[in-house]
Amino acid sequence: MTALLAVSPVVLLTLFVGLRGISATRTTSEFLVASRGITPLVNAAAVSGEYLSAASFLGVAGMMVRDGVGALWYPVGFTAGYVAMLSLVAAPMRRSGALTVPDFAETRLGSPALRRLSAMVVLVIAVLYLVPQFRTAGLVLSVVGDVSYWVGVVIAGGVISTTLALGGMRAATYVQAFQFCLKLVLFAVPAVWLVVTVGAQTRQEAVDPVEFTRFEERTRVEFRVGATLRVRRPTEVRSPDGSARVLRTGEHHVEAGQVLVFPEGAEVPTVPGTAPPGGEHWGRPLLNVADAGHPLFGTWAVLVATVCGTMGLPHVLVRFHTSPDGRAARRTAALTVVLLSLFYLFPGVYGALGRVLLPELYLSGGTDTVVVALPTQVDTGWSATLFTVLVTGGAFAAFLATSLGLLLVVSGALSHDLLPGGVTRLRGTAPLAAAVVVLLALPAVFLDTNILVTWAFTIAAATFCPLLVLGIWWSELTVAGAVSGMSVGLFGSSAGMAVTLFGPPLDGWKAVLTAQPAPWVVPLSFVTMLLVSVRTRAPGWARTEMLRLHLDEPAAPAR
Amino acid sequence: MSGGRRTVVMSPQTRLARSRPAAGRRWRKPPLEVHESERAGRLYRAQRRHAVGTVGLLVVLVFGLPPLLGLFAAAGQLRLFGVPLSWAALVLVPFPSMVLLAWRQSRRAESLERRR
């Protein structure tokens, strides 16, 4: 019931706003870039609405519960990416006149092969980014209402592909701009309510972290995904039906779907490979990536990945093409920094309160649900239900907006860049792509989605970021250089991620550098592009093509 | 209706976009005129200078803050309205600074382009 209340208004409003865009969409340019008529403020709201995905709405607070205050560096990196984009990419990118990122690659370097490679990279990034969105949609709905995981996933897929197939970019723009406002309100208001309602003692505990070692009350832990627990002292646990059993000292594997009830005062088991929330490391404002013991380097690694990755995310870049000119594209980026800064004032509130009220989520690996689970922890009755409905609606808006943008670039890459066709084919591609992603998201419930998002960011940082920065600012970049640099970036980051997902457990430097490969793979990709380009010769028109990107539009006639 | 030929009326951008053949075939835009090319070169150099400045400041801010806050947290329990200073600074320092940085960069880039 709660789930229905939360999701149906968001879905209906999305469809309503989206359907208003139908009649206008007749050309490819209209479908992909809304005929470039979007004003900076609307566009910035749309960029922010699209960018604030499940990772921002739920993930940052969840990571803060699990990993500590250092998780707040993620939003800093997400926002800093736009300052870099504003300085280096926004206006020249818009002035290239391209419709998609692969289009830009072909316009600047004149190579259809590079266009196809870029389109492939767009597909890889978009799928890696879409699967976690759909997974979180399914998980959140199954936490809030008693629906199965797959129902949420299918609902998300259906709504998004319908909106997109009918309305294209203009619909997506209004939907996303509207959803930014929705998300900001649905995130900020419950945060303030939580801080006011929790009471002085919890507020005090929130800023004085203590390590989570003992259950302060009878605690029910629901394992949606299997987990391994290490028990240091025999602990009696009960199942919801009342049957008791004793967990002996040592490691235990808990199957997915089990529920354990720990008694008051029992010692908290540990999760191998992670430290319990609240300890001394938790309060340090640094990110200990992979618990490898190099927090400062880990923080820097995350910042490199998020800042450079933001510059190369195809669904964000395509938004800049909807601006009427280069100046508007730049203003869009600047306003986006402001809007994101507003939103990112709040995840810390959820994280700090979640650490006090729901630390047990870390046992089941379910910290991502902390935002939607908090309201019922601080209050009972109608107000808790109301605020649960509000944050769930906001979270659902977050997946819708992000998935909409990603699906749009998937359609663009498939039926504009790889197999050029008209707007009819573009419309048809969106539901097909959504169906494929739904199928991929169904088994993904067991994956740690942060790995997939990190992977997408790292690939973007190691392929499109160097391609755009060097393509815009260095006339000697050649096709051979771009292709080899992008390949190195794609394979380097994928190798690191494959080792993290499937390889043997590592520790120390090796663990940081495979779990977060950006610090070596981004420089490597830049250097490869530079060296290979120096050894090959750029054609005579290359300098003109680069300079053209920096030429401003003639001043508009006075009105 | 006179017998004059009918001509298609469209904006210069549309004409440029329409003149582009299907994707996959080689096609180059017409070269820049001399005065355009000079202006583009001037803008390119000036914008590059500003962009490097802004990105440099951004790098100092974003990458300099973690070691600084790490030291702060180790140094002791400074508080701001009860919240540990190193936590508050993690939100209250970078975001306003980035807003200022973005505003400044956008203004400077636009003022370069206003010069004719």
| Shape, per Cα inertia axes of chain A | globular
Q: Considering residues with a beta carbon less than 8 A from a beta carbon on another chain, report the largest interface and each chain's count.
A: A-B, 58 and 58 residues
User: Which percent bin holds the helix content of chain B?
Assistant: 55-70%
CATH second-level architecture of chain A: Up-down Bundle
Radius of gyration of chain B, in Å, reads: 26 Å
Number of domains of chain A: 1
How many β-strand stretches of chain B?
Answer: 2
> Distance between the terminal alpha carbons of chain A, to the nearest Å?
54 Å
The total of helices of chain A stands at 25
In terms of structural class, how would the helical and strand content of chain B be classed?
Answer: mainly alpha
Helices and strands in order, then pairings?
The complex is a heterodimer of chains A (559) and B (116).
Chain A: H1 2-19, H2 28-33, H3 40-51, H4 54-67, H5 73-88, H6 90-95, H7 101-109, H8 112-144, H9 149-197, H10 200-207, E1 219-222, E2 227-231, E3 235-238, E4 244-247, E5 250-254, E6 259-262, H11 280-283, H12 295-312, H13 314-320, H14 326-343, H15 347-357, H16 370-373, H17 375-378, H18 382-418, H19 423-441, H20 449-462, H21 464-473, H22 479-502, H23 509-515, H24 518-535, H25 542-550
Antiparallel strand pairs in A: 1-6, 2-5, 3-4
Chain B: H1 12-19, H2 34-75, E1 79-80, E2 83-84, H3 85-92, H4 94-114
Antiparallel strand pairs in B: 1-2
Q: What would your notes on this structure say?
A:
Chain A has 559 residues and is mainly alpha-helical. Chain A has one domain: Sodium/glucose cotransporter (Up-down Bundle), CATH 1.20.1730. Helix content of chain A is 67%, strand content 5%. Chain A has a two-stranded antiparallel ribbon with strand order 1-6. A two-stranded antiparallel ribbon of chain A has the order 2-5. Chain A has a two-stranded antiparallel ribbon with strand order 3-4. In chain A, helix 9 crosses helix 15 and helix 13 (314-320) packs across helix 18. The mean pLDDT of chain A is 81. With 116 residues, chain B is mainly α. Chain B has one domain (33-115). Chain B contains 4 helices and 2 strands. Chain B has helices at 12-19, 34-75, 85-92, 94-114; strands at 79-80, 83-84. In chain B, a hairpin with a 2-residue loop joins strand 1 (79-80) and strand 2. In chain B, helix 2 (34-75) runs antiparallel to helix 3 and helix 2 runs antiparallel to helix 4 (94-114). The radius of gyration of chain B is 26 Å and the shape is elongated. At the A-B interface, helix 5, helix 10, helix 12, helix 14 and helix 25 of A face helix 1, helix 2, strand 2, helix 3 and helix 4 of B.
